Amino acid sequence: MLSFLLSRLVSTFFVVLGVVTLVFLLIHLVPGDPVQAMLGEAAQPADLESLREALGLNQPLLTQWWLYITNLLQGDLGNSLYSKEPIIDILIERFPATLELAFAGLLVAVLLALPLGSIAALRKDTVWDNGAMVFSLLGVSIPNFWLGPMLILLFSLMLGWLPVSGREGLASLVLPAVTLGTALAAILARMVRSTLLEVLSEDYIRTARAKGLRESAIVIHHALRNASLPIITVLGLQLGTLLGGAVITEIIFAWPGVGQKTIEAIQQRDYPVVQACILLISLSYVLVNTLTDVVYAWLDPRVRYSV
Amino acid sequence: MFGPWLPLEPNQISLSLKLQPPSSVAWLGYDDVGRPILDRLIMGARASFFVAFWVIFVSLTLGTLIGCVSGWFGGYVDLVVVRLMDVFLAFPGILLAIALSGILGPGLENVVFALSVVGWVGFARLARAQTLSLKHREHVVAAVALGARTPRILRYHVIPLLVAPLFIEATFGIAGIVIAEAGLSYLGLGVQPPTASWGSMIRDGTSYMLMAPHMVLAPGIALLLIVLSVNILGDKLRDRLDVKTRD
Q: Do the domain assignments include residue B174?
């Protein structure tokens, strides 16, 4: 286990370093002079120079990179060009909302996918199975920026059951979570179905049946339990995708998270904030992926020894 | 695709017609400034196909090349490529695309660039994995023993066998790219107005959902149908070519 942890740690270190470097390089992709782009055409040369100085953009690239990393390690992400606030404060304020949305989306996905996938597997090649798979196909094909407005139209504008946007109480979380979680539910339902089908053909299931166990006990105690490992892995890997997908969902529902801030900052050409938001979401993604790997290895010894 | 030769007026503003529901004159009605939605839908499809074609072309070529070379040579080359792929995979795809097109500014070329930067990794990973397993196949080993040079081996003995899995990956890729392009345009990071894109049409339509639901319905259903058909096509292709899936 120790050598597995160590090798994971080393590769995570390189990935984090790469992610930071790529995010650092983003500002150099701004067409023309980034400082000019941030301050606008009417900016005074002296202001341009002082901002360039403040961002360290007048230094050699390697020095800038080193500065970026050392500042990052001290939790210093600089200040927003727009609101002058320290960026770290913005992130601390925004991140809980994004996490809340991502976990709610995950919950929706699991609550939809487990029963759907199980029914599809247990009633293979019946109407139930086909229905679940049609849902799954629709779920991956429907873009969230269309599903979201449609849900708003139906449940908020026409039926008036749920709020249109914002983050006030549990009711306002329902539509964003469903919007975010549907695609994952679709992927997961397929996964549950195929894994369960595989497990159900195992010998120990036949033994359990032969013992005269009730079908529900077989499914819950024997089949789902053994199918849970790959499902957990997919869940872990997809949590990161949810964090990314949350950007669009946050925009649809005016959800005050990091994703909404990212788009705001892009519109305000507040590039340091854009960089910080992207970095935060990506690093959370890396963290979740690494944790998933470690948990998987801890649960399944076979993974540990194959490294 | 034939959009430019059809008698379409996707940017013709007629305020008197604004928000008109579908009728026999305009099958899908008019939008908030009186532009015919059907015409805009057809022009929007061109934006989607343009982006999908170029992104697949660039990322397939680049990804296959990088993946093959990395898998074939192994050693340090492979190590560097794998680390690089890990870094790109560490970003949720759509997020990196949002960041890139946000920073580069709106425009279809920038969308193509942003989505290709995200897209090559999937192809590279697949090509690398396949090359690794093909490397020890008899016909490849024979070619090496005969003294064939590496480019020739890759060109004639390895890449032809990669075509099927990469083709399937590309089919599913199209669905993802069409959604991503529309998503970027929805966020205002894709095409520049007044050019039509399904994503920006959906965004414009959401402000008028109660008065003119056809504005959101038309592009959304078009998008859904395209993505659905591509996904079904991908499924069928996969069954037909019987390639082991990655997941």
A: yes
Are the Cβ atoms of B104 and A191 closer than 8 angstroms? no
The model's confidence at residue B116, banded by pLDDT at 50, 70 and 90, is very high
CB B202 within 8 A of CB B218: no
**Chain B nearest CA to A212, separation (Å):** 34
Tell me how close the Cα of B30 comes to any Cα of chain A, in angstroms: 19
Interchain pair B98, A263: CB under 8 A: yes
The pLDDT assigned to A85 comes to: 85
B143: distance to nearest CA of chain A, Å?
31
Rounded Cα distance between B128 and B81, Å, is: 10
- Note the ipTM here: 0.81
Alpha-carbon dihedral sign for residues B219, B192, A31, A277: negative
Q: Looking at the domain assignment, is residue B234 inside a domain?
A: yes
**Rounded CA separation A151/A175 (Å):** 7
- Type of residue found at A69: I
| Cβ-based burial of A13 (10 A; exposed 0-12, middle 13-18, buried ≥19) | exposed
The answer to pTM > 0.80 is yes
- Report the C-alpha gap between A161 and A171 in whole angstroms: 9
The domain tally of chain B equals 1
How close B160 comes to chain A (CA, Å)?
A: 30
Which structural domain, as residue segments, surrounds residue B192? 49-241
Task: Provide the phi-psi class of B242: left if phi over 0, else alpha when psi is between -120 and 50, else beta.
Answer: left
> Alpha carbon A27 to chain centroid distance?
23
C-alpha A51/C-alpha A48 separation (Å) is 5
Whether residue B69 lies inside any domain: the answer is: yes
What is the sign, positive or negative, of the torsion defined by CA atoms of B23, B32, A257, A37? positive
- The verdict on residue B28 lying in a domain is no
Would the pLDDT of A147 be above 50? yes
Contacts of B179 in chain A (CB under 8 A): 143
Please, are residues B49 and B223 in contact by the beta-carbon 8 Å criterion? no
pLDDT tens digits for range A209-228: 888 777 777 777 777 777 77
DSSP assigned state of B30:
B
Interface test with B, best of A144, A146, A153, A192 (most B CBs within 10 A): A146
Taking CA–CA distances from B208, the nearest residue in chain A reads A153
Give dist(CA A302, CA B20) in Å, integer: 63
Read off the CATH number of the domain in which B75 is found. 1.10.3720.10
User: Cβ of B187 and A18 within 8 Å?
Assistant: no
Choose among B60, B51, B57: nearest CA to B126: B60
Sorted by sequence, the CB contacts under 8 Å of residue A163 that are 6+ apart come out as: A156, A171, A172, A175
- Residue keyed to tokens 């980034």: A34
Q: Do B216 and A145 touch (CB under 8 A)?
A: no
Nearest CB among A14, A143, A281 relative to B179 is that of A143
